[in-house]
Amino acid sequence: MRDYKVEFENRVAFIKNLLSESGAKGIVFGNSGGKDSALVGILCKAACDNTVGVVLPCATKRNYEEDARDGLEVAEKFGIETRTVDLTPVRASLLQALEGVAEITPGALANIAPRLRMTTLYAIAGAENRLVAGTGNKCEYYVGYFTKWGDGAHDFNPIADLNVTEIYEFLRYLDAPKSVIEKAPSAALFDGQTDEQEMGVSYAELEAHIDGKEIPADKKAKVERLHRISEHKRVGIARYGE
To answer: 137: helix, coil or strand?
Structure first.
C-alpha cells in the first residue's frame, strides 16, 4: 500500500508548482459525484483555495439525483466552491441542429455529454484564468475508457498514475464520504450504466493484467483489444510529415 500521507503532500506540492509556473489564479474541475472527481477535488482544494467544482448534469436522471447529491456532499465536507451548469437543454439543441445532417449512433450520442462538459469547464477556465484538472485514473487510461476531447482533456491530472484500488484507499485515508466510496463506479452516460458492465471486465481483473498477473483468457483478450483500439486516444494527433 502507498504511504498516502506522503502521496497527499507530494501531489499537493505538484499542483501548487503547476499553478505557480502557469500564472493561473485557480482551478476548475468537473464534480461528477464519483470517486475520481472526489479525490481530484480534495487534492486541488488543499493546493489552491480558489478551486471550483462544477456539477454538470446532462440528460440522465442519475446526474440530477444521486451523482449531484454525492458531489455536493464531498464539496461541503472539504469546503469546495460548487457551481451547477445544466447541459441537458444544450445537448437537446445540438441534437436538433444535427437532424438531417447525420444519424447519431448510440456511441456518438454517449460522447456528446463529456464533450459538452469539457467545453463548459474550459469556458470557465478561460474566463477566470483557471487550470482545468483532469479526473481519469490509470485503469481507464489503459483501456481508453474516456472520451477523446471530453473527459480525456485537461491541463493536468493529479491522479493519472493511480489505479482504482489506490483511489479508494486514498479516499478512505482522507475520510471522504461513504456515498462516494461505496457506490458502483459509473460515468452515468445513461441510466443504469456502470463502468465494469460497459467495459466487460472488472477493475480487479484490469489492475491484475496491468500489473502483469494472469487473468482468465477471455478477459485478457478483451483488455488487450480495448488497449489496442484505444491507442489513438493516448498518442494524440497524427500530423503529416512526422
So the answer is: coil
The correct answer on CATH 3.40.1190.20 for the domain covering 4-198 is: no
User: Other C-beta atoms within 10 Å of 111: how many?
Assistant: 19
- The residues carrying an active-site annotation are 36, 140
DSSP per position, 190-202: STT--HHHHHTS-
Residue 81: which H helix or E strand, with range?
strand 81-84
Q: Check residue 146 and report its DSSP letter.
A: S
Per residue in 212-237, pLDDT (tens digit) is 999 999 999 999 999 999 999 998 77
The alpha helices in 48-177, defined as continuous H runs, are 61-64, 66-78, 88-98, 106-128, 138-143, 164-173
Q: Cα(202)–Cα(227) distance, rounded to whole angstroms? A: 15
